[in-house]
Amino acid sequence: MKIIMLGAPGAGKGTQAEMISEKYGLPHVSTGDIFRANIKNGTELGKEAKKYMDAGQLVPDELTVKILLDRVAQDDCKNGYVLDGFPRTIPQAEVLDKALTELGDKVDYAINVDVPDENIINRMSGRRACVTCGATYHVVYAPTKVEGICDKCGSELILRDDDKPETVKNRLEVYHKQTQPLIEYYDKKGVLKEVDGTVDMNEVFNSIVSILA
Ligand SMILES: [Zn+2]
């Protein structure tokens, strides 16, 4: 079972990918993690990717797909995997499809965790982080005992720049422009499944399980 996770940043697709990975025993393949691992281990692909990154350039899609295929060719992926963070654009999806077709393989499900922008902006703006120990909270979903004070170390909590509405809006704009077209792309291929991501994460997961069952 090869699954691709789709959804806006902050929609919770990483959490769902992790839950799918655990229940079905499929590796959670996140492109960020694979890049870091290749660079850390000094592989040829990692060295090549690092050249682009050091020059402040985007890693070309062909190279990203190479790194990805190298990962999913490993033994633990032989029964499938959950892709998180890739593809992000139509050209990336096309390169991936081409490569999978050459291997006689294909994507089985593209699961879109659907959450309206307003919900995402609200969720993110409720996040709080400790300035001292880095612990994270949420004013609604994971509140501290005393408002604005870290439970673990007693320091002050802040709203990080990354979680501020303006930053989140910018990221959502990029998502709508570059990544959202993938929903139609996978729909045309007949593998798109949509779940309501506004509900509790366990409910979201139940919907996914009923799709995969
Ligand atoms: Zn703290």
Verbal overview:
The chain contains nine helices and eight strands. With 213 residues, it is α/β, with parallel strands linked by helices. The chain folds into two domains: 163 residues, 3-Layer(aba) Sandwich (Rossmann fold); 38 residues, no CATH class. The strands form two sheets. It has a five-stranded parallel β-sheet, sandwiched between helices. Helix 3 packs antiparallel against helix 4, helix 4 packs across helix 5 and helix 6 runs antiparallel to helix 7. The termini are close together. The model has no long low-confidence stretch (mean pLDDT 94). The structure holds zinc ion (ZN). The site of zinc ion (ZN) has 8 residues, from loops. Zinc ion (ZN) binds next to loops.
Secondary structure topology:
Blueprint: E1 2-6, H1 13-24, E2 28-30, H2 31-40, H3 44-54, H4 61-72, E3 81-84, H5 90-102, E4 109-114, H6 117-125, E5 127-130, E6 136-138, E7 157-158, H7 165-179, H8 181-188, E8 192-196, H9 201-212
Parallel strand pairs: 1-3, 1-4, 2-3, 4-8
Antiparallel strand pairs: 5-6, 5-7
Helix pairs in contact: 1-9, 2-3, 2-4, 3-4, 4-5, 6-7
The structure holds zinc ion.
